[in-house]
Amino acid sequence: MSNRVLMLAAVNGFLVVLLGAFGAHGLESILSPERIETWQTGVQYHMFHTLALLGTGLLIEHGGRTKILYGSAQLFLAGNILFSGSLYLLAVTGTSWLGMITPAGGLAYLGGWWLFAMAVWNRE
């Protein structure tokens, strides 16, 4: 199971660097500063939670509470899709209703951190 989570971290790491570079070099001359800021917020949270996926996978590999940590990883991934994904789409399209999806991603991130904390709380 750790391999799956570590692979998700690797794929997300690749994507976040690609999307960050695309925003900085491909969109900066096209989008307004406000939309670039929205894009960058997506990239920032995407990177933070890619690192969270990496840490979760490593903890699973070292004998962590697998089911809880796998749930945490799934929520981090869902957060990346819903939170960062909605911000990427909002920045590019300007479609305001996408902003209603972003809080669901934030809740997924919070749930991921909650499960992560539960897994490490009883680790000893």
Overall description:
With 124 residues, the protein is mostly helical. The protein has one domain (2-121). It is 83% helix and 0% strand. The chain has helices at residues 2-27, 33-61, 66-93, 102-121. The protein is elongated. It starts with a helix and ends with a helix.
What structural keywords apply?
0% strand, 124 residues, 4 helices, single chain, mainly alpha
Strand residue content: under 5%
Shape: elongated
Largest sheet: none
Strand elements, count = 0
Order of helices and strands: HHHH
Number of helical regions: 4
| Cα separation of the termini | 21 Å
Give the overall pLDDT as a whole number.
94
Percent of residues in helices comes to over 70%
- The whole-angstrom Rg is 15 Å
Domain module count: 1
| SSE-based structural type | mainly alpha
In short:
By secondary structure, the protein is mostly helical.
Walk me through the topology.
Blueprint lengths: L1 H26 L5 H29 L4 H28 L8 H20 L3
Helix pairs in contact: 1-2, 1-3, 2-3, 3-4
